[in-house]
Amino acid sequence: MENIFADRINDVPKSFIREILKVTVQPDVISFAGGLPNRDFFPVKEIRESCCRVLDESGKDALQYSTTEGYEPLREFVSKRYADKGINISPDEILITNGSQQGLDLMAKSVLNEGENVIIERPGYLGAIQSLSIYKANFKTVDLENDGPCISDVKKAIESNPKLFYAVPNFQNPSGITWSDSKRREVADVLAPSKTVLIEDDPYGELRFIGKPQESMKKYLEKNTVLLGSFSKIFAPSFRLGWIAAPKSIFEKVIVAKQAADLHTNYFSQRVLFDYLRNNDIDKHISTILAVYRKQREAMVNAIKKYFPEEVEFTEPEGGMFLWVKLPRHINSLELFDIAIKDKVAFVPGDPFYPSNPDKFTMRLNFSCVDEATITEGIERLAGAIKSVM
Amino acid sequence: MENIFADRINDVPKSFIREILKVTVQPDVISFAGGLPNRDFFPVKEIRESCCRVLDESGKDALQYSTTEGYEPLREFVSKRYADKGINISPDEILITNGSQQGLDLMAKSVLNEGENVIIERPGYLGAIQSLSIYKANFKTVDLENDGPCISDVKKAIESNPKLFYAVPNFQNPSGITWSDSKRREVADVLAPSKTVLIEDDPYGELRFIGKPQESMKKYLEKNTVLLGSFSKIFAPSFRLGWIAAPKSIFEKVIVAKQAADLHTNYFSQRVLFDYLRNNDIDKHISTILAVYRKQREAMVNAIKKYFPEEVEFTEPEGGMFLWVKLPRHINSLELFDIAIKDKVAFVPGDPFYPSNPDKFTMRLNFSCVDEATITEGIERLAGAIKSVM
Predict the structure, then answer these.
(1) Domain boundary residue among A279, A303, A325?
(2) In degrees to the nearest 10, what's the CA dihedral of A360, A362, A363, A364?
(3) Of A23, B36, B196, B229, whose Cβ has the fewest other Cβ atoms within 10 Å?
(4) DSSP reduced 3-state for A1
């Protein structure tokens, strides 16, 4: 059956991370490889209460088919939360999706023809590389500097008339880098005269534990920005609830794609989430998560400073779940992985975060789901592995 | 922004049914237009118990990210249920999807190149026409006779080397028609020498209230059959839980497509469903639903016989949720709809169930979510509308 497949699927590799995670599940391995929120802070009791309330108060309705757009009060909640940040998005421009990953898939499905150009950060989010690859995107990468994309790279890329620019401006996965306000303005200036649609994916935006929030790109590039958001990191990943916020003309097409893809998003879960949001203080819950992640991030940064050789560079993210490490140019992170796993510590080599020509001397470390003492122990082990190669 | 869209999305119309349903939600309209299960028989209390049990026993795990393939015990349940019917499918060949609609989308994404041929029944399932249209399928229709597809049509269609044959052999939506065993064997004989993959979509298979079950096409065409299934009609639609069962070589590609589409299906809902299945007798629950639908179907058939003019033809389905009406050749069902809605009764005109050259003198009637007395009343109203046109 080798020959029956669509061209679009033949070139997409199985997820590298999925394969890596299989190696790292052994209980004695300290894993910085995953990208999971810390499960100790899921609001289990409150979700239980919401399940019961929804089923007691409107069980039959909550179990029936529903609209493609999503549960209206939940869309209003998202709209209001944008309004609180000064961003004007009507509930009618918000579609509830199976996580923000689906928002990206539906956008690509709606606008991307085979071989069209798409700008993506270098390194970039692996899930986006996969999803866009299926639609045969031709990637134009722009280097990520410490404060956002290299502007001359963006200028050069925009000359190719790309359909999309996919970016994670806040605490990017994998790098942890946040675009500065000035970089945001500069990118908007470059994109403004073009037809390129910027997709601002912001799964980690609420997870800022240091410094002040930047403005959304929607502020600088209102007409041509599509926003992706997620409840996975602040509520519960298993609910697979995110959204896409798109101008009406795009929204109409994305709805068609959504309906063809799966009719609508799990409605019971939308009802439970909204009940939770109405009866609990989500900001208080977020601040609990932030306090934990801030400490874990500090533990990782401190341990790196203490144990890693001086030649190793790394980012110090102001939020999110990841930091990014640049090894000396003779240490291939794929080879380091094999040594590290023997020392019972795991990470994700940088390789899969590049659509082509990977920087092989990089790696991603996750700090959100390992406690502080374990982080320190794991970084010490990893330092040992690095030193053994040097 | 008119010109930014992908070719694939530009040709796909907004769902006709969605538009119609907007007209039919007025409370005094008797609607046979929807395709909803009867909400009075959703197991609300049992689902509440399962939500609590899952969260009490393994809340943190049930709220975390999970595997792309789906919850292993749920996949084993589906595998075992196939085994009970004599169909051998390993849990490793089963992917849990957001309803069976997503199974179709992922299959099309994985195997269909632009312009490739796809066989579909005439009339055919609207959701499939939409989903396949997005991948630019070139439809080859085969007429549905009362016992399944016209075999000479299938023979002719197979000459075009179609990639896929999408079919709903049990209580088809929209027609209510079930393929006979002999038609199944004949179709399998025609397809066996070809590379065409048959997608057997079976959302209504468990809803047989008259007669004996037929064998799955998987029995007759083992290597080239992919099965789609759904818990929407026997458990709860809002959970959006279905599956795709595909031979390993196809499965590997579908997994890549699924991961790029949305990482994985709502895991909390998978856990709740499995808990429900473990602690309740699903077959007993199905028999409760069947008893109701059988009576409602009888009420509709009897009312049609009593009130409709003799010239009107209609199917008498042995299961499922729909029956199909052929009006005399001078009564256009789109025009009839406008008259009927004034008489406060609604249906779906046959038009959207044809990828091209619609039979304009047909309509779909749903009997699953209206009680017997209301069905009789609604059919009487509809008969009045038909007679007023004749």
Answers:
(1) A279
(2) -130
(3) A23
(4) coil
Using a CB-CB cut-off of 8 Å, the residues of chain A touching B6 are 109-113, 135
Least Cα distance to A108 among A250, A278, A213 occurs for A250
Answer yes or no: do A25 and A108 share one domain: no
B2 touches chain A (CB under 8 A): yes
Neighbour count for residue A130 (Cβ, 10 Å): 25
Q: Are strands A241-245 and A225-230 parallel, antiparallel or unpaired?
A: antiparallel
A window 304-363, beta carbon within 8 A of B: none
Using a pLDDT cut of 70, give the percent of chain B over it.
Answer: 96
Provide the 3-class DSSP secondary structure of residue B323: strand
Helix axes A333-342, A372-389, angle to 10 degrees: 120
Cβ atoms of B338 and B332 closer than 8 Å: no
Structure tokens at B370: 């209206």
Write the DSSP string, B98-161.
Answer: EHHHHHHHHHHHHHPPTT-EEEEEES--HHHHHHHHHTT-EEEEEEEETTEE-HHHHHHHHTT-
CATH of the domain at A118: 3.40.640.10
Does A212 touch chain B if contact means CB atoms closer than 8 Å?
Answer: no
The DSSP secondary-structure symbol of A163 reads S
Disruptive mutation site among A65, A72, A93, A258 for chain B (greatest number of B CBs within 10 Å):
A65
- Nearest neighbour of A110 by CB, restricted to B9, B47, B51: B9
Residue A159 lies in a domain: yes
The answer to whether B266 contacts A262, with C-beta atoms less than 8 Å apart, is no
Band (B1; pLDDT cuts 50, 70, 90)? very low
Distances (CA, A) of A111 to A105, A132, A141: 10, 11, 19
Q: Please tell me whether the interface predicted TM-score (ipTM) of this complex is above 0.85.
A: yes
Give the chain B residue nearest A44 (alpha carbons): B59
d(CA A176, CA A254): 29
Q: Tell me if B59 is assigned to some domain.
A: no
Distance, CA of A361 to CA of A359 (rounded, Å): 6
Task: Tell me whether the omega of the peptide bond preceding residue A123 falls within 30 degrees of 0, making it cis.
Answer: yes
Give the per-residue pLDDT at B2. Answer: 46
Count other C-beta atoms under 10 Å from residue B358's C-beta. 17
Its domain, for residue A337, covers 2-43+284-389
In this structure, are residues B123 and B350 in contact, taking their beta carbons and an 8 Å threshold? yes
E-strand ranges in chain B read 30-31, 94-98, 117-122, 138-145, 148-149, 164-167, 197-201, 225-230, 241-245, 313-314, 322-326, 345-346, 348-349, 362-366
For residue A291, the distance in angstroms to the closest alpha carbon of chain B comes to 19
Q: What is the CATH number of the domain that holds B300?
A: 3.90.1150.10
pTM: 0.96
Angle B110-B114-B120 (CA atoms, 0-180°, nearest 5)?
Answer: 75
Structural contact between residues A51 and B47, judged by C-beta atoms closer than 8 angstroms: no
Q: Cβ separation of A6 and B40 shorter than 8 Å?
A: no
Domains held by chain A: number: 2
What's A42's DSSP letter? S
pLDDT along chain A (390 residues), means of 10: 67 64 78 92 98 98 95 98 97 98 97 96 96 95 98 98 98 98 98 97 97 96 97 97 96 94 97 98 98 97 98 97 96 93 94 93 96 97 95
In a domain, B109, yes or no: yes
- According to DSSP, residue B240 is labeled -
Cα(A263)–Cα(A266) distance, rounded to whole angstroms? Answer: 10
Asked whether residue B5 carries a pLDDT value surpassing 80, the answer given is no
Rounded to a whole number of angstroms, the distance from the CA of B363 to the nearest CA of chain A is 22
Interval A251-306: pLDDT, tens? 999 999 999 999 999 999 999 999 999 999 999 999 999 999 999 999 999 999 99
Residue with tokens 């499922």: B320
Residue among A280, A316, A272, A276 at smallest CA distance from A297: A316
